[in-house]
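Suppose you are handed a protein chain with no further information: no name, no annotation, nothing but its sequence. What can you learn? This example shows the usual starting point.
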Amino acid sequence: MGKWWSGRPEVFDTVLRATTDDNPGIRRVAVRVLAHRYTDRACRVLIELAAGEGDDVLRTDLVRVMALVWPDEPDVLQFLEDTAADDTSDAVRTTARRGLVFLQLRSRLGTEEGASAAD
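A reasonable first move is to predict its three-dimensional structure. Written in structure tokens, the prediction is:
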């Protein structure tokens, strides 16, 4: 649905409902569709989803998606910091720490490029 009909309003709502499905596999697919097809409005939705998600694998996926798809969103930095400090899963905390390292490296590279351009 997300691949072919993502422009239809009812598809977003359907994918959003799929994030609460009992099957973690369906929730994972819904997260991927939101991240790939609805980047303009899915960031906050996925942060909220991660807060209530019980499946460690899906929370790990959510952390990774947040860092890679929305690295410039201020909410994402806070989300990663909170997750790295407080999540109950070692794997999720580790992924959040890696996301923070990615954001720091990305920021440094951007700063260095800006400095080189000014020289």
